Amino acid sequence: MLRVTFLGTGGSLPTPHRNPSAVLINRKGELMLFDCGEGTQQQMMRAKTGMMKLSSIFITHLHADHILGIPGLIQTMSFHGREDPLLIHGPEKSREHIVNLTRVGYTRPRFEVRVTELSPGDVVRRDGYDVLAVGTEHNIPSIGYALVEHERTGRFNRERAIELGVSPGPLFSRLQRGESVTVEGGVVHPVDVLGSPRPGRRVVYTGDTRPTSDILEASRGADLLIHDGSLTHDLVEWARETMHSTAREAALLAKEADVRELILTHISSRYSDPSPILEDATAVFDRVRVARDFLEIEVQYRDS
To answer: Is the pLDDT of residue 197 over 70?
Structure first.
């Protein structure tokens, strides 16, 4: 399972229909937050995502609409008896600010909060996947993130294995784990019964940014690109001045990167109806949606 839940999709300010930035990824039961705007813990309750299995928060930059939810979330988890450490990652020069935020609350949290600074190109290595820090361009230090799953083994050819004398059962499992097995006819190696390695899934989240070459490279062939799409292209000069992206600029990047799907988020409060944002993007790229709060997406394997 790789489920993406949009908890906050608004730009800068909350509106009656959009909370500030927060995207939750549930990968096989492990929860990761990308940005944590004000009220994120309430959005998690409304979406029924759970929060106690949250392993990490990845912050793109220190603007208030991306970090003010951290104290409330920590307090809520602490009141519910959390004991596991929480890892928070952010851009260069963010550690002191984030540490101070984690100390805001009625009581000191019962669990450890570890804060790590990342630079573009840094990799957070996990079991079965990595999170890469991606260079972005905003008006304060910022980074985006690419969640990249490791390659999977090729498809197991059951019929071929039986032909080679392998009996169904534990020996099948050993071959699928990459181990050779001995049978009456000799030794059967994984390469004899497994197809070519299959790619994992790739999800890219930019945070607030102008389009960048780093985002383009990180997004090539991505299953899902979640990109700043704050404004329509008639306001491109304002987008450049405020260091955001228009929907059309994000769509052009998605088209060049050949992503499977583009989701536009951080929608300016001037668009109570997101149709202009969508029209702006679909003029150049048709595999696109405008995020809304509580939108859920199941990211499928490409060969599923």
So the answer is: yes
**Which CATH code, of 3.40.50.10860, 3.60.15.10, 3.40.50.720, 3.40.720.10, is assigned to 2-152+198-298?**
3.60.15.10
- List, as one string, the DSSP characters of 116-160: EEE-TT-EEEETTEEEEEEE---SSS-EEEEEEEPPBPPPB-HHH
Domain positions in the chain are 2-152+198-298, 158-193
Q: Is the pLDDT of residue 172 over 90?
A: no
Residue 292 in this model has a pLDDT that exceeds 60: yes
CA distances from 194 to 168, 191, 198, 201, 293 (A): 15, 5, 11, 20, 42
Q: Whole-model pTM?
A: 0.91
Active site residues: 65
Q: Give every CB contact of residue 226 below 8 A, 6+ residues apart in sequence.
A: 4, 23, 34, 203, 204, 205, 206, 263, 265, 291
- pLDDT for the residue numbered 304: 53
DSSP letter (8 states) at residue 234: G
Q: What percent of the chain has pLDDT over 70?
A: 99
